[in-house]
């Protein structure tokens, strides 16, 4: 179907945002006006340079950092393992984001925007709807950025002011760049989720109006096609950001366990207290949980809106006679739509819904108990 008219405000916002994110290769280089990849060869070379430069600078900064060596010499094994897991997940997320944007995600990115514009063109033909990014999403993104700035301040302060280390070395070893990439990807997930969710809400309202109108069969065909488009859009979303979501979930678990372990070791095992250390660990826990919830809750709300559509279709069957054409068409469309119910997952490994919050909490609690017991046994062996 040929798409007419200008894109909605929320799509324009994502296009503008992606222009900024293209510089960091968080999003693929894509020419929205011509609907073709923008300089693919240059993009691939730039992606390789970004990954190589980051790995080299990080290794050099760690090798020549006396504070890092002192940290690994004087901390417990559980702290060393925790830091290694946190650093590995953040670095893996950085590399995957850059590599996927440079080599893999251009076609999926094109399909995502084509589907959204296709949906808008079908809805506009029968309903005057304006789409824009909600103020709640903007407020969440602003709060997220403020929390990140506060989180990044403490490692830079301790490294450059208290221990007189060069700024670039402290900046490279405290994983601020990698954490910034993760936060921006979470923001992108939240924005795209809001865009898809708003269209499901519009479709649910449109469906309720169609079922009360005179031309039920003809209008339902258009509604079902719109529902199919949104289901394909959700599948494309999984293809674009599934692996990043997987790494974000693993990083959330590792960071929460590590931060709780550091607080336990500082207060109980070493019997020392540092207000700055407590505040830093508190901010680590807060921003990790906040990012995790910004991924899980919006995606779960999309699935709730999609299930509302299916519930409306089933309830509407009572409005028509069992032998009427409208009833037969509604049964047919409902069965067809069941194949396009959105299901978000982390690269196919597990589903993303509210139950994941309790699953992560349970795993963190279990690993934390194991770490505490391990610390106590190690402390008894090395009094």
Strand/helix succession: HEEHHHHHHHHHHH
Poorly predicted spans: 1-5
Characterize the overall form.
elongated
The secondary structure category is: mainly alpha
- Percent helix, as a range, is over 70%
* Gap between N and C termini: 74 Å
* Average of pLDDT: 80
Which tags fit this structure?
elongated; single chain; 2 strands; mainly alpha; 12 helices; 383 residues; 78% helix
Protein model, in words:
The chain is about 80% helix and about 0% strand. The protein has helices at about 10-20, 40-65, 65-75, 75-105, 105-125, 135-160, 165-175, 175-210, 215-270, 275-315, 325-335, 355-380; strands spanning about 30, 35. It is an all-alpha fold. Residues about 1-5 have low confidence and may be disordered.
Ordered list of secondary-structure elements with their pairings:
Blueprint: H1 9-21, E1 30-31, E2 36-37, H2 40-63, H3 66-74, H4 77-103, H5 106-124, H6 135-162, H7 167-173, H8 176-212, H9 216-269, H10 275-316, H11 325-337, H12 355-381
Antiparallel strand pairs: 1-2
Transmembrane segments: 12-30, 81-104, 136-156, 176-196, 237-256, 276-299, 356-374
Family: Belongs to the insect chemoreceptor superfamily. Gustatory receptor (GR) family.
Function: Gustatory receptor which mediates acceptance or avoidance behavior, depending on its substrates.
Quick take:
With 383 residues, this protein is mainly alpha-helical.
């Amino acid at each position: 179907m040929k798409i007419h008219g200008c894109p909605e405000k929320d799509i324009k916002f994502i296009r503008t945002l992606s222009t900024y994110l293209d510089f960091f290769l968080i999003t693929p280089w894509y020419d929205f006006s011509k609907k073709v990849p923008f300089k693919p060869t240059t993009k691939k070379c730039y992606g390789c340079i970004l990954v190589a430069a980051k790995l080299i600078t990080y290794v050099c900064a760690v090798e020549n950092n006396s504070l890092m060596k002192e940290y690994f010499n004087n901390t417990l094994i559980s702290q060393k393992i925790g830091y290694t897991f946190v650093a590995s997940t953040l670095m893996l997320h950085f590399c995957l984001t850059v590599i996927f944007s440079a080599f893999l995600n251009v076609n999926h990115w094109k399909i995502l925007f084509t589907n959204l514009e296709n949906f808008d063109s079908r809805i506009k033909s029968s309903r005057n709807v304006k789409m824009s990014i909600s103020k709640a999403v903007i407020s969440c993104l602003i709060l997220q950025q403020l929390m990140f700035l506060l989180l990044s301040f403490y490692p830079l302060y301790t490294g450059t002011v208290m221990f007189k280390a060069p700024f670039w070395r402290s900046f490279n070893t405290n994983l601020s760049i990698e954490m910034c990439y993760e936060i921006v990807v979470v923001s992108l997930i939240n924005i795209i989720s809001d865009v898809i969710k708003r269209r499901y809400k519009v479709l649910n309202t449109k469906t309720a109006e169609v079922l009360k109108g005179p031309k039920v069969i003809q209008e339902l065909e258009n509604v079902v096609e719109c529902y199919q488009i949104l289901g394909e859009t959700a599948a494309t979303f999984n293809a674009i950001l599934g692996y990043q979501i997987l790494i974000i979930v693993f990083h959330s678990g590792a960071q929460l366990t590590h931060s709780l372990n550091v607080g336990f070791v500082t207060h109980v095992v070493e019997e020392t207290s540092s207000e700055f250390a407590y505040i830093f660990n508190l901010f680590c826990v807060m921003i990790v949980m906040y990012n995790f919830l910004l991924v899980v809750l919006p995606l779960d709300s999309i699935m709730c809106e999609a299930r509302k559509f299916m519930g409306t279709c089933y309830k509407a069957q009572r409005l028509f006679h069992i032998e009427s054409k409208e009833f037969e068409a509604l049964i047919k469309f409902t069965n067809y739509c069941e194949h396009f119910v959105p299901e978000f997952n982390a690269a196919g490994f597990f589903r993303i819904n509210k139950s994941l919050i309790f699953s992560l909490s349970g795993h963190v609690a279990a690993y934390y108990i194991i770490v505490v017991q391990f610390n106590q046994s190690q402390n008894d062996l090395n009094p």
